[in-house]
Specification:
Length: about 375
């Protein structure tokens, strides 16, 4: 019951924190939003650091907690299936069953080794690869179908410098997850006003894809049955989702096509998806049926594919595909140079290492509370 209470507490905390960060840009006064826009470089730097910190946390949780847990569940599941198959083989009725007992022993050994190597190792790897490819394909297809992205992808962002010089090569991107939304502003030198596209996911399909993505993150928390793993998963998910919710709310708040009520509804639909996933995972783990172990193992593998997708496609690709993003958001008169590029890369790697080390410390503390 203690684990259940912790899971419900985590679901409530993640939902409230993500809602607070997501609704803040929508509900706060417009002057606050203008101050944020004037300090776009600082905002981009903070969001990038927080995103890289979340990447370090996700790397630890995925490869040190979620992947071994899914591996153990699949190992137990495949052993049970093989035992059931062999038990049926040895329960055969007949006069000559004892004559062929040694043959069946050798058959058992060879079948077990063959099926174990072929089914467990190959199918197990294929499951992870296919889950990864499915999520990647859905992500790319939904991104391509979003009408807001087509207008942005074919028109460069134009930035007007204080001296009147127009730089067509400077594109300011503050990503929700490396690619989902983009903040493209055209700033003039007279009024300092901000115009341009809002980059909001206007289609319901796109929003549901984001929600489905977050639901499986919550399911990964709900499937855990140890306090240590629940805390590790909660830290990983909340660091990723808080940054994502804030950026999502910031982008939604800048959309002139959406009413205030619809903006709030968009953010709440997005931020409530993780608590829903946690509840689904809790319900699945507490349901005792013949197929509970199989469903739990499949969901664990699916969540692992989600986490791998987040790490390598959404975070690392978005942060390291163009590490000049920080320099482009700095002051207009500041020239980029290799030293600045190296500092940006080292800064991101530092935040990744910090997230990874903090998770190691938390895991050690919770595993040895009396030490």
């Amino acid at each position: 019951m203690e684990v259940l209470h912790l899971q419900l507490l985590v679901a409530t905390g993640i939902g409230l924190s993500c809602s607070a960060f997501g609704l803040a840009p929508v509900l706060l006064p417009a002057s606050f939003g203008r101050r944020l826009v004037r300090r776009a470089s600082t905002r981009a730097r903070l969001l990038s650091g927080a995103t890289c910190f979340g990447a370090g946390v996700f790397i630890f949780v995925c490869f040190m907690a979620l992947l071994p847990e899914a591996d153990a569940k699949f190992h137990i599941l495949m052993e049970n299936i093989l035992r059931h198959m062999i038990w049926k083989l040895f329960n055969m009725k007949g006069v000559y069953i004892y004559i062929y007992i040694y043959i069946y022993i050798y058959i058992y050994i060879y079948i077990y080794i063959y099926i174990y190597i072929y089914i467990y190792i190959y199918i197990y790897i294929y499951i992870y690869i296919y889950i990864f490819l499915i999520i990647f394909t859905i992500d790319k297809v939904v991104h391509a179908l979003d009408p807001a992205n087509h207008s942005h992808n074919h028109s460069p962002s134009i930035k007007i410098h204080p001296g009147g010089r127009i730089d067509n090569n400077n594109i300011e991107n503050i990503s929700l997850k490396g690619k989902y939304t983009s903040l493209e502003d055209v700033t003039d030198n007279t009024g300092g006003g901000t115009h341009g596209g809002h980059g909001v996911p206007s289609s319901v399909i796109f929003l549901m894809a984001l929600c489905l993505h977050s639901v499986f993150e919550g399911i990964a928390i709900g499937l855990q049955d140890e306090t240590t793993k629940i805390v590790e998963f909660a830290v990983a998910v909340v660091t990723h989702e808080v940054v994502m919710a804030f950026t999502f709310g910031l982008q939604v708040s800048k959309s002139p096509a959406l009413s205030r009520t619809r903006k709030v509804l968009y953010v709440l639909l997005f931020t409530c998806s993780i608590p829903v996933g946690v509840l689904l995972g809790v319900g699945l783990s507490n349901t005792s049926t013949d197929h509970t172990e199989a469903v739990s193992a499949i969901c664990e593998a699916f969540a692992t594919g989600i986490f791998i997708h987040i790490i390598f496609i959404e975070i690392l690709e978005g942060e390291f595909s163009d590490h000049l993003g920080h320099d482009e958001d700095l002051e207009d008169d500041e020239e980029s140079n290799p030293r600045n590029e190296a500092c940006v890369v080292l800064e991101k790697i530092f935040f990744i290492c910090v997230g990874f080390v903090i998770m190691i410390v938390l895991s050690t503390v919770f595993m040895h509370p009396t030490a």
